[in-house]
């Protein structure tokens, strides 16, 4: 594998899950694989889990990670082609990506969407520019429209925790005070579409995700109906896709409560706003898998880096 930019880079989800489980059972088995190799982690946006788990994954493979907060510490990067650079940006992605490629064997990038310019966000300008102008493999640490490291993590977590062959998995929208990206939800949808699960999405009217991503997946606007017989309830807030980037509702009736989830396991990528998205009683109960998910971020990233290192 050259790049890991989307869930579509996973050729066989079941074999990837099996490989991730093996890595988790023996995380240092491939400590020699990344010897003398450098992973550059470039953050244009904040992170806790991705930042630490991807470094941990690199260290488990014997790699040397270098982390840079691009937005605060680097020159402002210009992504436009042919732009007259007489504004705020001081360095073009053509030079920046090529320069970083001389220091790093793999580059991982986090770049959130604008949530104001749908066309620009859907073009994945930042991620695709790194792919185009870097001479080394690129890993997506959450881009404008996808978070494939999180999606792989969630597949692993569901596989580890399911008690039935074909679990029912619900992705539920939840209220939030801020307009949030669609990336985690998109990648979760794409991941579940690859798995042998009964999968439904539940969100209010006006909050349907990109129909090119949801495809044939059922969308149920009644949360109670969607949650019936669920084994896993994955919750995420996202802003409207149709009325792009807008917060159309903060209806607290969509918050996840202990009463609503019944015997289902609760999942969220974190960070999560307590008692806005989900009540304490869920997060503080045995129903919650959020810490297991965060732990699995390391093994998902390690599998991705291992596959890329084996192909260098
Ligand atoms: N889930 C996730 O990507 O967490 P961070 O934003 O903290 O990296």
Large-scale geometry: globular
Structural domain tally: 2
Order of secondary-structure elements? HEHEHEEHEHHEHEHEHEHEHEHH
Instruction: Figure out the total of helices.
Output: 13
Give the tally of β-strands.
Answer: 11
Report the average pLDDT across residues.
Answer: 98
Radius of gyration: 19 Å
Unreliably modeled segments: none
Describe the main β-sheet briefly. 5 strands, parallel
Bound molecules: phosphoric acid mono(formamide)ester
Strand content: 5-15%
Q: Might you state the CATH topology name of the largest domain? A: Rossmann fold
- The CATH homologous superfamily name of the largest domain equals Aspartate/ornithine carbamoyltransferase
Topology:
Blueprint: H1 13-25, E1 38-43, H2 49-60, E2 64-69, H3 70-73, E3 77-78, E4 91-92, H4 93-103, E5 106-110, H5 118-123, H6 125-133, E6 138-140, H7 148-161, E7 168-173, H8 183-194, E8 198-202, H9 211-214, E9 219-220, H10 223-227, E10 232-236, H11 258-261, E11 265-267, H12 280-283, H13 290-309
The protein binds phosphoric acid mono(formamide)ester.
Residues 47-51, 142, 150, 269-271 line the site of phosphoric acid mono(formamide)ester.
